[in-house]
Amino acid sequence: MSVVEACAPPRYLNDAYLPLLENQSRYLVLRGGGGSGKSVFAAQKLAMRLTGETNHRLLVVRKVKDTLRQSVYEQLLDVLRSWEMMDDITYTTSPLSIKCATTNSEILFAGVDDPEKLKSITRITSIWIEEATELELEDFTQLDIRLRGKANYYKQFIITFNPVDEGHWLKKRFFDTPDPRATTLLTTFQDNYFLPEEDQQTLFSLAAVNPNYHRIYVLNEWGRLETGNEFYTNFQRSKFVRPTPYLPGLPIFQSWDANAHPYCAMLCAQLEHLPQGRLRVRVFREYTIPAPNSGVRPTARMFLRDWQAHWSSSDVFYTGDASMQNRKPGEGNQTLKKDIESELLPCSNGGSDRWLKQNPNVLRRRDWVNALFGGYYPDLELWLDEECLETITDLELTQLGLDGKLKERKLDKQKGLSYEVRGHCSDSFDYLLATLFPTYLQAFLRRGLPA
C-alpha cells in the first residue's frame, strides 16, 4: 500500500513537497529557509511511513539528545494528532519513542552526543537528521554506515537544515558535487502555504536587521558564520570569486603550504597585465589532495600531468612557506622544497625558483592582504576561480588568534592524529601575493601604508 493512499490527504501538505512523498532516494536533502515547512514535511513523511508501512525502526537524530523532546518528538505527535491518527499510537518520554500497533513500526530518537545510545539501536530502516548543520561529517558518516542491511521497504535519510554556513560539509557533500543517490529540494517561506502572515513579516524584516540572516532564512542562500573575528575582514565572495580560466602562454605561479593533513595545499595563479599598467592576479586552480594520498610529491605529480596535458605553453614558477626549505628529520639535507623541485624538473627552468626566504609576520601580512582586498591598490585586481572551494572557505572562515591565525585543531580518530582545520590554502594565497608583489609588501611593512 502506498503511504499516500494510507495516510493524509494532499490538502495537509505543501505543493512543493508532494512529489517527495514517494521519493525513494538514499538521501532526501531538504535545504530550506526559515518557515519553509521542511521539518514539518519530514515529520509528515515519517508519520506516513510509521502508519502505512510495517516493521519499521525509524530513527530521528539531532546533535544533542536533550533537544529532541521539545522539537522533533512534539512535531511528530502534532502531525499524528492533526491527522486524527492517534488511536493506534502509543508514545513514551523515557525513552522517547512513538509506536504504531497496526503496522508494528516505531520511531526512535537519539542524540549524536550519546554514542552509546546510538550503538544500542539496531535494525534501523530510515533516518531523519534534523538541524543537520549541527553534525560533523564524521557523525553523518557513522550514521550512513549504520543504515544498511535488508528491509521490507526502501532505506532513506531525510536531511533537513538551514544553509547557515557556506563552508559546511553538507554543501560539499550534496551540492558542490551532486550525489546520484540524492534528491535535493530548495524551499523558502513562500513555498509554505500554512505559514501565518505575522511570521512572514518577521522574515521580511530580517533584511534590515542582518543581511546574512536575510540570505539564510529568507532567500535560502548559503550564509556565512560571522563572528566579528575574521582573519580576512575585507574578503567578499561576490567581489573576488568568478570563473577564472587558465590563459594559454601566461606564466603559472605555484604557491605551496607545508602541511599533509587534512591535505597538501598548492595554488596555481597567473599574473595578467591589463591596460594602463594595471595587474590582475588570477588564481585558476587549487590542489588539495586529501590524506592518505596527500603530500608534496603526489601534488607535484598531479600538477605535472595537468601541465603536460593542458598548460605546457606556460613557464612555471614556484614559491611557498619558507619553512619548507628546512631539512626533514632523518633525511640528511633533503627538504620539502627539494621534493617538489625534483618532481617539477620537466616543467622547470633556471628562473623557476621564487621561494620566500622568510615568511612575513602573520599579523602584518594580514593587514596587508586586507588592504589588497579593501582596494587600497587601485592598480591591482584579485580573481579566484569559483572551483577553488577550499581557498574561498579559508578566506571566509579563518579566524584571528592571539598571534596570528586561530589554530583550530581536529582529531582524526582513525589515524590517531590531530591537524589544523583551516588556514592552509589561505597561507598559500598569502605567500603567492608576497612573492608577486614584494615591493608593495615591504613598503607596507615599513610604513603601514600602501606603496
TrEMBL record:
Highest taxon above the source species: Bacteria
UniProt name for this protein: PBSX family phage terminase large subunit
Protein source organism: Hymenobacter defluvii
Pfam families: Terminase_3
Residues of the Phage terminase large subunit N-terminal domain: 26-219
